[in-house]
Amino acid sequence: PSPDPTPAPTPDPQPQYRGFVDVPADSWYVESGVFDYALDHGLMKGYSDGSNRFGPDDSITRAMAVTVLWRMAGEPACEAADFDDADYSEESWYKDAVRWARASEVVKGYEGTNCFGPNDPVTREQLAVMVARFASTVSHIDTSSTGAALAAKPDAASVSDWARDAVAWSVDQGILGGASIIDPQGTATRCQGCKMLSIAHKIIGNQGASHGEARVHFIDVGQGDSGFIELPNGKTMLVDAGTTESGEKVASYIAGLGYSRIDYIVATHPHEDHIGGMARVLRGFDIGEIWMPRATSNTATFEGLLDVIAEKGIPVNAAEEGKIICSDEGFSATILSPFETSYSDLNDWSVILELDVGARSFLFTGDASSSVIGKACGHHVDVLKVGHHGSRTSTTRQLAETLSPDWAVISVGAGNSYGHPSEEVPSALSGVAHLLRTDLDGTVTLSCDGETIRRAA
Fold first, then answer.
1. Domains of the chain
2. pLDDT tens digits, 409-420
3. pTM for this structure?
């Protein structure tokens, strides 16, 4: 998705929280967790002017608001009549979001005009209406309300008649009115938006995979890899768990989806940025089985993982070409590599896994080199988890053309010391795939019903 618009920069050289110079670590929105949630789920981002600002006290504009909701919807492409005052040029960062919002009736424009007011600050009741319309028309959620909770608020009378039903539902859900008043005519700030939209996301967007649908979560673990898969039959799979420092985040993310069991775990290869967090996950969940290549390492991280596996008595399977981890009606998960008995580079021991859901496919590549990936998979895939955090060793233009993915996801840490992704990798992929990066987009979730793939909230 395109970045938020650029405001006038305010000088402040010292980062405070997550690299933002204007976000104190002791602010209410950080301590409550809503700031991390909004960033980790790709709902909100900092400004794109290089100032490292988030603008917590800046007003959310109407264009910003619909862009967040568009991200929650999976960034669909839609056609709709143009508003007179919106920018639909190639340079416009919000044009696709506004078209989607109008086509979905999330917004209708100002009454009696063909104007949207993209740069106008959004009021709290306007934002509540947008969220309620999204819930009703896009997610098909019942937004009816008795209005009792709203009536108990001292400023309930200041809610506009046209917004009353939506505000009543928003108060019921805790999206508005966490304090004693709801302030419906007040403008929503970006830090308030973190709270309101994070709560909305949990209610609207985080519904889990439907029966017969797969949902793949590329978890933002910084400079590492972790992918959690909700399979169409209700079972689950975890492919890697990031660094040691990421283990708690991965465990919390999975628990937040409502799971206490992981049926299949794939440890692609024994590097710390892939298996470092796995011991924490194994300790915190009921585990079905684990798949690992016949590669070893004498690191404390790898040996510690083996200790936990032995301690819990988790069955271990050797990951080898042709083995099927799981299959059921309409889907299968098949190992394509390792296909040799030895490799000189530990990265090439990486488990390369193809998940087929109906007519669609996902390819997980670990840190394998482009030559190994090319030998393992010489056909089109719909979604490519780009190898080795976007390193040039794992992706070439020829491989990109061979796989010709519709979607490509790079799991990479912001400002990492390795220079990932290599400059030529996004260039090689941009002509064939819709490219997403965890350092820019946060956790990326893709849903697949066997025919279509969409970016989920």
1. 28-205 (no CATH), 214-455 (3.60.15.10)
2. 999 999 999 999
3. 0.60
